[in-house]
Amino acid sequence: MQSSTKRMGVMTDVHRRFLQLLMTHGVLEEWDVKRLQRHCYKVHDRNATVDKLEDFINNINSVLESLYIEIKRGVTEDDGRPIYALVNLATTSVSKMATDFAENELDLFRKALELIIDSETGFASSTNILNLVDQLKGKKMKKKEAEQVLQKFVQNKWLIEKEGEFTLHGRAILEMEQYIRETYPDAVKTCNICHSLLIQGQSCETCGIRMHLPCVAKYFQSNAEPRCPHCNDYWPHEIPEVFDPEKERESGISKPNKKPLRSRQR
Amino acid sequence: ACPPAPNSNLTLSPISVHAMDREWMSMSSGSLGRLGMRGQGPPGPAPPAPAQLVQKAHELMWYVLVKDQKKMIIWFPDMVKDVIGSYKKWCRSILRRTSLILARVFGLHLRLTSLHTMEFALVKALEPEELDRVALSNRMPMTGLLLMILSLIYVKGRGARESAVWNVLRILGLRPWKKHSTFGDVRKLITEEFVQQNYLKYQRVPYVEPPEYEFFWGSRASREITKLQIMEFLARVFKKDPQAWPSRYREALEEARALREANPTAHCARSSVSED
Question: Where's the MAGE domain (chain B) (predicted)?
Answer without folding.
Answer: 53-252
